[in-house]
Amino acid sequence: MPKLPKLNKDAGSFSEKEELAEELAEREINLGEDDSDEVFNMPCGYTDSDGVVHKTFTFREINGKDEEAMGKGDLKKNSSKVVSLLLSRCVTSIGTITPKSAGVKKWEEIIKSLYVGDQDYMLLMLRKISIGDEIELKHECPYCKQRLTSIVNVDELEIIPFSGNHKIDFELPRGYKDKKGEVHKKGVMRLPTGLDREILSPLAKNNMARANTVMLTRLCKFSDGLPITDDVMSDLSTNDRRYLNSILEANIFGVKLEIEVECDSCGETFKGNFNVINFM
Question: Which of these, 114, 181, 236, 270, is most buried using a 10 Å CB contact count?
Answer without folding.
Answer: 114
